[in-house]
Description:
single chain; alpha/beta; Arc Repressor Mutant, subunit A; D-Maltodextrin-Binding Protein, domain 2; 2 domains; two-stranded antiparallel sheet; 11 helices
Amino acid sequence: MLDVRRLRLLRDLAHLGTIAAVAQAHAYTPSAVSQQLAALQREAGVPLLEHTGRTVRLTPAGTALAQHTETVLAALEAATATLAAAQAELSGTVHIGAFPSAVRTLLPPALVALGRDHPGLDLMVTELDPVAVPDALRDRRLDVALLHDYDIVPIAPDPALDSTPLLDETVFLAVPDDGVHLDPAGDPISAARNAAWIVGTPGTLCHTVAERVCHTAGFLPRVRHHADDFTAVLALVAAGQGVALVPQLGAIQPPPGVRLRPLAAHRRTRIAYRRGAADHPAIAACVSALRASTSAFLPS
């Protein structure tokens, strides 16, 4: 019989690429991870790993087993959901992850509704960039989370996760009132070719989106400031420090001195959870509360 905990380590090795990364994700030592994978290989009876110098990679059999592991883990999530549904009321801890603009706008009313309707739930929120959400869900540091991508920077689905759409937002170019001249009939991004830019921290999705939008318009942005909170971004724009891309949630009640020009780009937000967990009552309750708060905050 194959050990599920060891299968999870193999799956994570396929995703993360190194023993050290798997060890860090699980708070193990690299030696402990290697020992567990060696034990899994003995259980399987076929080679699962190939060693080349100091690197290790999965054999074809190891890759196939890692893919099967996603199905096994999803079945366990579904079984857990079935047992939870048999309980009289919802209880336990739910770890919720969201990006800053959602934490400030959509999440508070959802938390209020969840606390009112399901007082047995202990709700814990973590603010994080969407690029970190898949790993956090996979490692069980989160149970449900908001993640997003942009139509100009689509993200491939993660085989370990399921999700449901929540929100599709317009993206704006925010400019200072006395700054970039925007021809109403022209392309706002091209008009900002020579402007200073305020973009997200390198490695964040917002940073990637800004670079992609400018590259598509035929130039590289001249970055003056890095900021990840849209309230701070808009304050910098209002101070004449540059232009920035801001999605609809981040552009609620902009400060005086800021003009917003809608772009063709859209940010797409989804509610994500581990594959197989959609029918878990706590997950379903979170999805329902988030949809209700989103509809109230941004009515269509």
